[in-house]
Amino acid sequence: MAERINFTKAAIANLQPDSKKRVTVYDTRQAGLCIRVTPAGAKTYYCVRKVAVRTEWVRIGDAQTVTIENARTAAAKIINDIAAGQNPAEQKRIRKAEMTFSDLFAQWVKAKAAKRSLSNDQNNYRLHLQGLAKKKLSDITRQQIRTLHQKIGAASGVYQANRVLALVRAVFNFGIKELDLNIPNPAAGIKLHREESRDRRLHPDELPRFFDALAETENPDFRDYVLLSLLTGARRSNVLAMHWQEINLERALWRIPSAKAKAGEAIEVPLSSAALDILQRRKTTYGGQGWVLPGPGKTGHLVEPKRAWATLLKRAGIEDLRLHDLRRSLASFQIDAGATLAVIGKALGHQSQQTTAVYARLALDPVRDAMEKGAAAILAAAGVKDTAEIVPMKKGKRSA
Q1: Is 287 left (phi over 0), alpha (psi -120 to 50) or beta?
Q2: Is the CATH code 3.20.20.70 the one for domain 207-360?
Q3: Cβ atoms of 348 and 331 closer than 8 Å
Q4: Domain covering 3-97 assigned CATH 3.30.70.1670 in the classification
Q5: Can you give the pLDDT at residue 350?
Q6: Is the per-residue pLDDT at 384 higher than 60?
Q7: What is the phi/psi pair of residue 43, to 5°?
Q8: Residue 338 three-state SS
């Protein structure tokens, strides 16, 4: 028969371990409450109760940190829960076997293998979601996601924070809809940060400094990457992963395959003579096989050179310019030169002119030209000089 004692601090302190097996001692005051003493001397409270044909051992906590009264209260609650049809031990087993966020993310990645922006999602997971990776899905709360969203926004910007929030929301929705997980989505309903539409471009007065600084760059791969980005207007990921199989120098054409295109349709980019010169030089120097911009990393091609870009901007004395702004810059200069939105949109791989129209508001030369013409028309109608010098009107000429 199991030993029973009245649990007191002194009685528990006097419990001695057995070098060969665990010792179990029950409390005389609270049914089901016991202490198990390991051969190493560790003492732990448990509540023991028979449920159907199974004896359940529900761990309460370490006897050194849990008080006797709290242990008795916990045991009484466990017994009441079991009487009400809830089995804490079974719930604990279910929770132990429950999927973690990393488990769910792995299944989501497998299901979204064809997603074109999957590499960006994986990078966001690696950089921002490691704190959730080992958590059980039911342990991830709405407040945790909200706090994470705010933290990323402060450290990496609102755009990055919104992309991570959208990723968490998508992964949980996948689990709920595709895997029939009976859990709430902790990212649902959390308001995105407001994103300001970015309108930065390289301005004409910045170009001489930009090209002078670029000419001083010692790394030819970085220099060619920047020039090709500016001269083709292609997305960063496409320029970095440019392959010689996609280039036709005779036709002066770069065909970005659908698998690499954001909208899922192949993009044909006409190559200017300046872009052709760069590519021809690289082909002569490095050969025309494999990546146009090879790199030593896992991808085999150049990866985004953030440090070199920062050095370039510092040398040029240019602030708040991003690599993606080079794409916006080409479109703006094309509009300045009189190109239509339809033509520009085709070169950039846009699916609608509405997308291209965003770039039109950055081009000031057509606006300035229209302002000059409007001002000249006003002055001509007023009968004053082109210099806008106001000539006093003679008496009797004053209009009513």
Answers
A1: left
A2: no
A3: yes
A4: no
A5: 52
A6: no
A7: -120, 125
A8: coil
